[in-house]
Each structure stands twice: as structure tokens, then as C-alpha cells.
Design a protein that fits this description.
The protein is of the alpha/beta class and 483 residues long. 37% of the residues lie in helices and 19% in strands. It has 18 helices and 18 strands. The longest helix is centred in the middle third of the chain and has 18 residues, at 309-326.
Length: 483
């Protein structure tokens, strides 16, 4: 049986800031169902809900070298949904609110990477593969090469590093190389961890892991181009034989309109008539004009530039005026938080267009699901998008995505073709506000043709973006790595 240890900074339901948490919460579960012994190791953050902390038991405790210091480390263990989770415990580093963004993040996650490796012979689980995710775990492969590869019990371990977003790299002053990571200067070079005369955790993962994966086929190609490569495109081109793209999935048990208790009315692809009840209830709840014939365009997102919010800022007010003049009406529902300028923009236009626009500047999982279940279209005009999960959930709930053709959005949303009846959404190619509004117009126009519209919805709901296929692809990579 394959033995895989996932190492990450977050996982649902314990700790989450973004899509990484969803992946780590659901991919191991699917692998387990496919016969893989998949386990997960995380930091023991203060903010993990108390109900889970009560279930944790101490597996072992020991000291970890952090530069010239010896730091306490406890390994706690619990089972959740059939998966074994381990939690790396140190109150100095993790007994504080939030996950990251502290001045000592280099030390906190340097400790995590070393603690993971130090714990392997103490938890009765020696994995075949360490599957590390994003910059926080990038030094696992480097430290493994420096301090553990020669040990007999470790010598057969392979490492896979997954990039969830290349923009976040964990770059710190080069002094941490010895002071925190206990690494020789031979690792500080263009083929190692050096990045603009600093140390990059992410580049360490790219340089020293046996294989690299990222979260969609298109993103794997895009990051080898200077525009998307975040100054690492040349390095990634050099390792392209070891780089694969595997699309993220979503947990189909968790996101299921037929059983979701947070939406107003349950439905499935065979009972689409019930879906309109969610729409009417959503309109009423958000103070919009209650009318099933008015299409709702939804945004559930972090309100930041790379999500395409600047395109909306540029074009949205004009679009609303045009729709009012042409009596080509539509409503807009926004849910999310982010940069103050975008939050204030949406608050302002919601105030300016009461009954037409709703802006909920917060995050609320129940409301998000009600929006997926009640809105007609889901707008995701990202500048770049490694994979994207919102469009997958939207399709699952029969809310048609309107996306820019980039990264995982290009891989998962196929433009609807009226001639063939194939396709599961709407898209536009260039990062351009007018192209975005043309795609919205096309979707709004098709909305009035109920026969065609229901066909698009059905296609989207029948699209399979569960973890099953992707987990099988990961298994193929694991087996290839082990020869």
C-alpha cells in the first residue's frame, strides 16, 4: 500500500485561508478511498476549534534544531473522517491568532519543515512520499537533502512539491540559511534556494523535490512564461520534465445541492425547477427585486486585483446604465473581503443601485452556498488563476461560470456552443473589461432562452470535477516517482 504524508500549512476543517485548505481537507480522503494510506501533518495553531483539540492525543515530544537553538516539539494525533492528522506543536510559534503574516514566519515555518522530518521515525509512519504544499513547506526537501537523506530509514523517501500559487514564495534574508535552517552556503546559489540575494522557501521546494506539480495543466504551462512565472519561469523551464499539472477537485459530498442543509431548497439536475426557489429566497434575503426572470450575476471572491476586480471597477457602472436604458436588466450579488478600495467600490454601487446590487463585505459560508444555489451566473474574470475552486462549486450548483481563459479556469470551463449543445459556461480570452462585458451580455441574452439555458446548467452540473480522477493522476505520479 502506498504511504503518503501530506505536509501543509492549512486544511479544512482545522484551519483555512484559501483553496489550499480545501485541497488538503479533501484530496487525502479520496486517496484513502482508492486504497492509499494518506495522512496529513499541520501546525497546531491556536485558532483550531476547541472541539478538535479535545480529540488530539500526544504521540511524542522531542527537541528540534533551529539554527543554534533547540526548540520543543510535540506531535499530536487525531482521526478525522478516516484520515490520520498529525499536528506539530510549539506554543512560541503557533500559539497566536491567524496562520501567517508574522515577522518571524521564516523561523516558524523553518521549524515546521525540520519538525516534520524529525518526527517521521517517531510516529510509526514512514511514508514512501512526502507531498509538500506551497512555500511554507518548501524547505522540507532542502533539509531532507542536507540532514536526512543519508539515514538508512529515510533513504527511500521521495518528495513531491505542489505549487498552489507561484506568487507567494516565502522570501527572507539570506542570514536565515545558517541561523534558522542550519544549511551550508553551498545551497545558496542559482540552482538552489537563492532568489535575488535572499532565500526563497518556494524555490527550495522547486529545486530539491523529486517532482513538482501544480493545480492545472494550463497553469503548469503558463508559469514557464515570464508573464506568469514570477521570476522563476527560467528555473521552471529547466525542470519542465519533472513538472506536471493536475486539476484540483472539490469534495462532492461536501458540495451537493441535493443534500446541502445551508441552502433554502434542495435540488439536483433532475429537479431543476426547484432551484428557482433558492433564487427567490436569495433575492428576498438580500433586498433585491424578487423576480425569477431577472438574471443574477454573482461574485464570491477575495476582492483583490488578480481576481479581476479592477475590470469590474472599470466597466460595471457603465454596464448597469446600459442595462437600465435597454431594459436588459440584471442583478449583481457580491460576497467577499479584500482591498479597501474594492470593498468601498462595491459598497458605494450597492448604495447607488438599491434593489439591483447587493454587496456583503464579509465571508459567510452559508451565504456563499445560498448564492451558488440561487444566482444564475458566477463571474470570475481573473488576471491569473492557478486552478480556482469557485467555478467548480458554481457548476455543481447549476450557477453558470463566466471566466477568463487562464489557468484552471481554461481547463474546467468550456464555452457553450449552441450548435453542438456542448459546453458548461462562458469565457473570454483577453484581460479586457469590454471582453468581459461582452461575455456577460452573451450569458444574459442566453438566459432568456430557457431551453438553451437549462442545457448549459445541466452540462455544468454533470461535469465531473470531483477528486476521483485527479486522485488517480496523483497515484500515477507517486508510482512513477517510486519507479
Amino acid at each position: 500500500m502506498l504511504k503518503i504524508l501530506f505536509v501543509a500549512a492549512e486544511a479544512v476543517p482545522f484551519c483555512k485561508t484559501g483553496g489550499l485548505g480545501d485541497v488538503i481537507g479533501s484530496l487525502p480522503k479520496e486517496l484513502k478511498q482508492q486504497g492509499v494510506d494518506a495522512r496529513v501533518m499541520l501546525p497546531n495553531y491556536q485558532d483550531i476549534p476547541e472541539k478538535y483539540k479535545k480529540e488530539m492525543v500526544l504521540k511524542d515530544k522531542f527537541f528540534v534544531q533551529v539554527g543554534w537553538r533547540q526548540k520543543y516539539c510535540g506531535v499530536l494525533q487525531m482521526e478525522y473522517q478516516g484520515i490520520t492528522f498529525y499536528f506539530i506543536d510549539n506554543e512560541d510559534y503557533f500559539k497566536r491568532h491567524g496562520l501567517y503574516g508574522y515577522d518571524d514566519d521564516a523561523e516558524r515555518f523553518g521549524f515546521l519543515c525540520r519538525a516534520v522530518l524529525e518526527s517521521l521515525d517517531k510516529i510509526d509512519f514512514m511514508p514512501d512520499i512526502l507531498h509538500c504544499h506551497d512555500w511554507h513547506t518548501g524547505m522540507v526537501s532542502v533539509l531532507f537533502d542536507a540532514h536526512y537523506r543519508h539515514l538508512p530509514e529515510y533513504e527511500n523517501i521521495k518528495t513531491l512539491f505542489t505549487i498552489h500559487n507561484l506568487r507567494y514564495q516565502g522570501v527572507f534574508p539570506k542570514e536565515i540559511l545558517h541561523d534558522i535552517l542550519s544549511l551550508d552556503w553551498k545551497y545558496f546559489n542559482a540552482d538552489g534556494v537563492e532568489f535575488n540575494d535572499a532565500v526563497s522557501f518556494l524555490k527550495g521546494g522547486l529545486a530539491y523535490s523529486d517532482m513538482i506539480s501544480t493545480v492545472s495543466r494550463t497553469y503548469a504551462e503558463e508559469i514557464q512564461d515570464p508573464y506568469f512565472g514570477e521570476q522563476l519561469d527560467g528555473f521552471l523551464r529547466k525542470r519542465q520534465e519533472s513538472l506536471v499539472g493536475i486539476i484540483n477537485g472539490i469534495d462532492y459530498d461536501e458540495y451537493n445541492p441535493a443534500t446541502d442543509t445551508k441552502i433554502f431548497t434542495n435540488y439536483d439536475v433532475k429537479s431543476l425547477a426547484k432551484r428557482v426557489e433558492n433564487k427567490l429566497a436569495l433575492q428576498k434575503q438580500l433586498g433585491l427585486a424578487v423576480n425569477a426572470d431577472i438574471p443574477i450575476v454573482a461574485i464570491v471572491s477575495r476582492l483583490v486585483g488578480p481576481k479581476g476586480i479592477d475590470l469590474m471597477e472599470r466597466r460595471l457602472v457603465d454596464m448597469l446604465k446600459e442595462m437600465s436604458i435597454d431594459n436588459h436588466d440584471a442583478q449583481l450579488v457580491v460576497l467577499g473581503t479584500g482591498e479597501a478600495r474594492y470593498e468601498n467600490f462595491f459598497r458605494y454601487i450597492a448604495w447607488q443601485y438599491p434593489g439591483k446590487i447587493s454587496a456583503s463585505i464579509m465571508f459567510d459560508d452559508a451565504l456563499a452556498r445560498q448564492i451558488y444555489a440561487g444566482a444564475d451566473m458566477f463571474l470570475m474574470p481573473s488576471l491569473y488563476e492557478p486552478c480556482g475552486i469557485g467555478q467548480l462549486i458554481a457548476m455543481r450548483y447549476g450557477c453558470m461560470p463566466i471566466v477568463r481563459e487562464t489557468g484552471g479556469l481554461k481547463d474546467t470551463v468550456q464555452p457553450y456552443d449552441e450548435e453542438t449543445g456542448k459546453g458548461n459556461g462562458f469565457s473570454f480570452a483577453n484581460y479586457n473589461a469590454h471582453e468581459m462585458s461582452d461575455a456577460i451580455d452573451a450569458a444574459v441574452e442566453m438566459f432568456s432562452n430557457k431551453k438553451q439555458w437549462n442545457k448549459v446548467i445541466a452540462n455544468g452540473m454533470k461535469s465531473d470535477y470531483s477528486w476521483q480522477k485527479s486522485a488517480q493522476q496523483y497515484q500515477e505520479i507517486y508510482k512513477k516517482m517510486l519507479g
